[in-house]
Design goal:
about 150 residues; 4 strands; about 40% helix
Length: about 150
């Protein structure tokens, strides 16, 4: 089956984020951090953020996993940098809906992460795409305490 031009563009953007991840590395002055694991596939992600006056002023990720998981983490860092905690949580919720086939209200704010909307056709890959976003949610909801966790099956 031939890929459409749009599918080819989506694929190119996803591969670019996987091969040239944005904000991959350790954040020396993190105010919150978390590690999550996806036990179904073994993907692991660590998300570190610096938060000042309710704004995410810096974010980094480390981890290992599939192309979808790592490119999604890179896309997430682009989307949340400079956002308030509330806006970042809203984007995480919206992204979760997008990869499950729902329409997005804030497509522009999700940026390249919208390119992962096609994951909705592959339910087994949804947890890969949402791993970093779930880590973001847990870290922000933990109020900066940082916790280790595992992504559980729903």
């Amino acid at each position: 089956m031939a890929l459409t031009k749009l599918d080819q563009l989506y694929r190119a953007v996803i591969l670019d984020h996987s091969k040239n991840p944005r904000r991959r590395g350790v954040l020396d002055k993190a105010t919150t951090q978390i590690e999550l694991k996806n036990p179904t596939c073994g993907d692991v992600i660590q998300v570190q953020m610096a938060i000042e006056e309710n704004i995410i002023t810096d974010v980094r990720f480390e981890g290992s996993g599939c192309t979808i998981s790592m490119s999604s983490a890179s896309m997430m860092t682009d989307a949340i940098l400079g956002k308030s905690i509330e806006d970042a949580l809203m984007l995480a919720d919206e992204f979760s809906g997008v990869v499950q086939g729902e329409e997005a209200e804030h497509k522009h704010e999700l940026g390249d992460a919208m390119m992962l909307s096609g994951v909705s056709k592959f339910p087994a890959r949804i947890k890969c795409a949402t791993l970093s976003w779930k880590a973001l949610e847990k870290a922000l909801e933990a109020d900066g305490t940082g916790v280790d966790g595992q992504l559980k099956h729903d």
